Amino acid sequence: MYTGIITDIGRVEAVEQRGDLRMWISCRDDTAAAALGASIACSGACFTIVDRGDGWFAVNVSAESQARTATGLWKEGARLNLERPLRIGDELGGHIVTGHVDGVGEVVATAPEGDSTRVTISVPRALAAFVAPKGSVTIDGVSLTVNEVEDLAGEARFGVNIIPHTAAQTTLDAVAPGRQVNLEIDALARLFGLHAPP
Questions:
Q1: CATH number for the domain that contains residue 73
Q2: Which of 93, 110, 118, 147 has the fewest CB atoms within 10 Å, i.e. the most exposed one?
Q3: Residues 79 and 113 in one domain
Q4: Looking at the structure, do residues 111 and 187 belong to the same domain, yes or no?
């Protein structure tokens, strides 16, 4: 379980295709003390730490995970939003996040808005019913508030604002049209069956 508050940005230093894809990721966090088998969210996808050392850790990315997540994340040089699991007693600063990617969205527009950047993302129709104005959504592991939802012919879109602090602390500083992003809908919307107009 996570909160969508990113604690570090990692970099994929190497990948190796075995039975699964093995990735070695550098980071600032002290992962040398992390238990083997511990969970870590990488741009919104929950993985298991299979090896670790001072300033790095390794995970296996299955073919299923690769098929259900945004393209370009699991390759050498990619930057990843990192979050360690929530512990009992931790502050819930974002919202409840499971680390299970529900679908892949695509950035269709960005525009400056005050000091922030307004980002518009197309969302798969199957998820559109669970995205509501002023509700929460996770984009590449980052907890954000939905500003508006549009129902267009053949697709649905929603908008969020990336404030300067969020841009500085996450990989959303480089968001641009055409980029695919991992989406996780709000767990409460799923639980209570929120349904916006299809």
A1: 2.40.30.20
A2: 93
A3: no
A4: yes
Cα(32)–Cα(53) distance, rounded to whole angstroms? Answer: 4
Model confidence pLDDT, tens digit, residues 70-123: 999 999 999 999 999 877 666 666 778 889 999 999 999 999 999 999 999 999
DSSP letters, 106-147, are: EEEEEEEETTEEEEEEEE-HHHHTT--TT-EEEETTEEEE--
The domain of 14 spans 8-83
DSSP 48-109: EEEEEETTEEEEEE-HHHHHTS-TTSSSTT-EEEEEPPP-TT----S--B-S---EEEEEEE
Region 56-78: mean pLDDT is: 96
Residue 198 lies in a domain: no
Q: Are 169 and 6 in contact (CB under 8 A)?
A: yes
Overall number of domains in the chain:
2
